[in-house]
Design a protein that fits this description.
Blueprint (H helix, E strand, L loop, with lengths): L1 E5 L5 E8 L4 E8 L3 H18 L3 E9 L7 H14 L4 E5 L4 H14 L4 E5 L2 H13 L8
Parallel strand pairs: 3-4, 4-5, 5-6
Antiparallel strand pairs: 1-2, 2-3
Protein name: STAS/SEC14 domain-containing protein
Organism: Hymenobacter cellulosilyticus
Length: 144
């Protein structure tokens, strides 16, 4: 089932689904993202992670325009710890075409540090391939 979130102009900004066949959650972000949109969307991702017990995310930003780095502090301080508590392991992130969206993703990657494995991709198929391969590799649990 696909869940679609819309902004105040009734335009979709996130479609997310549990892709059971592939064993990951697919997040398709769109348009210009406000901090509020990012937070609401990320909350929905957490809810779906909890519901499905899925620890693999495919985050698709190919249709995002502009920067969303204003939400990176919230992502690092609020979302990441909660995603880790749900045992997030691997995060494949397909970059937006513009420099602003790419910079936002690079800033997020810096904040991830070694908390979970996040890889940035320009190519959607490569991201899928990496995530499939990642599912075959079991990561040790963080002892801390």
């Amino acid at each position: 089932m696909i869940t679609t979130l819309t902004n105040s102009f009734d335009k979709p900004y996130l479609s997310l689904e549990w892709d059971q066949a592939n064993g990951w959650i697919y997040n398709r972000w769109q348009g210009l993202l406000s901090t509020e949109n990012v937070i609401k969307g990320c909350e929905q991702v957490l809810a779906l992670m909890q519901q499905t017990k899925c620890v693999y995310l495919l985050n698709d930003n190919r249709e995002v325009t502009g920067s969303w780095n204003q939400a990176n502090d919230w992502i690092a301080q609020e979302w990441m710890p909660r995603a880790l508590a749900l045992d997030l392991r691997r995060f494949a992130h397909v970059l937006a075409p513009g420099v602003f969206g790419q910079t936002s993703a690079e800033q997020m990657l810096q904040q991830v540090k070694n908390r979970f494995q996040m890889v940035l991709f320009h190519d959607f198929t490569e991201a899928q391939r990496w995530l499939r391969e990642a599912q075959r590799t079991i990561l040790p649990t963080d002892p801390s």
